[in-house]
Specification:
single chain; binds N-carbamoyl-L-aspartate; 10 helices; 9 strands; 14% strand; alpha/beta; 4-stranded parallel beta sheet
């Protein structure tokens, strides 16, 4: 008879009854206002822990597969940092061309493979609906880190957390948020407009005509009773904006390069333009920026885009802890 050692006491203490245990994060549509209160509370605690101790063992022994079919700096490295600060580890697949994807492996098969080795999968993919497809085949939680021009729910959560931390003392209701730039192809603004519709905010959209916010997003947001206005220029609404959310024109999504050339420099935020804005407002950007915010504006206290990246770490730590049953 083989001599079986007594089963060691392993740290398997996740709470399978926790509300978010094992859940996928695919779209901002799945969150209620109450959920945001909870997530922001956990993110706030994560911030305190990182400031006090840096790294701790909440997700010790857990493994994240970071599967990126599109370029990324912030999303990919902040998920890695989030997992490692919680004591877990990461399988990074940033260059799918060096993985079996380049041999023609399907997304479902790649996901089925990675979940044998990991406890949670973060996926960025160029096709709308790819994260939902992956989630259909995966037993482990899938987190959407951007599906083409579709959604970018974790970015919208960190964007909303940024607004909450920087301006939300008196509550989020009543704020005016102006989104500027490529509202057609920018997935961050598709998710953010939907998520902000949980609050009584006013939304302005400023873009070239060919890059307007998709009708389906506007209809969904209108259905929540939110006032939305579209403008071709920023001038009239900048002074009333509490948040100016600037986006990059998404060169890689244009079918015709001439169209991109026509609109790429449509808006440039600089210190002169910002003289017309309030003193206690913030300028955000999901980054990377190209030329839509001049570097001369970076030292202005209203430039929140670098702080916004840091808030992203805390929100992603919160989400990982939640879906792995530790928050
Ligand atoms: C954004 C993205 O990938 O959608 N970046 C990000 O995740 N911070 C925005 C962009 O690429 O312009």
């Amino acid at each position: 008879m083989p001599n079986h050692p007594a089963s060691p006491h392993l740290p398997f203490g996740e709470n399978k009854h926790a509300e978010w245990y094992g859940k996928d994060i695919l779209s901002v549509r799945q969150f209620t206002r109450q959920d945001l209160g909870y997530i922001f509370g956990v993110a706030h605690e994560m911030r305190g822990m990182v400031e006090r101790v840096g790294t701790f063992d909440l997700l010790k022994g857990k493994i994240l597969a970071n599967l990126f079919y599109e370029p990324s700096t912030r999303t990919s490295s902040s998920f890695t940092s989030a997992m490692e600060r919680l004591g877990g580890s990461v399988i990074p697949i940033n260059e799918v061309r060096y993985s079996s994807v380049s041999k023609g492996e399907s997304l479902p098969d790649t996901v089925r493979t990675l979940e044998c080795y990991a406890d949670v999968i973060v996926l960025r993919h160029p096709e709308v609906g790819s994260a939902a497809l992956a989630a259909q085949f995966a037993r482990k939680p899938v987190i959407n880190a951007g599906d083409g021009i579709g959604e970018h729910p974790t970015q919208a959560l960190l964007d909303t957390f940024t607004i909450f931390e920087e301006l939300g003392v008196g509550g989020m209701d009543g704020l005016t948020v102006t989104m500027l730039g490529d509202l057609k192809y920018g997935r961050t603004v598709h998710s953010l407009a939907r998520l902000l519709s949980l609050y009584k905010v006013k939304l302005n959209y400023v873009s070239p005509d060919i890059l307007r916010m998709p009708a389906e997003v506007m209809e969904e947001v209108a259905g929540k009773g939110i006032v939305q206005h579209e403008y071709p220029i920023l001038d009239t609404i900048l002074p009333e904006s509490d948040v100016l959310y600037v986006t990059r024109v998404q060169k890689e999504r244009f079918e015709n390069p001439d169209e991109y050339e026509k609109v790429k420099d449509a808006f440039v935020i600089n210190p002169q333009i910002m003289q017309a804005a309030k003193k206690n407002m913030i300028v955000m950007h999901p980054l990377p920026r190209v030329s839509e915010i001049s570097i001369e504006f970076d030292d202005d206290p209203r430039a929140a885009y670098f702080r916004q990246m840091e808030y992203g770490l805390y929100v992603r730590m919160a989400l990982l802890a939640m879906v792995l049953g530790k928050a």
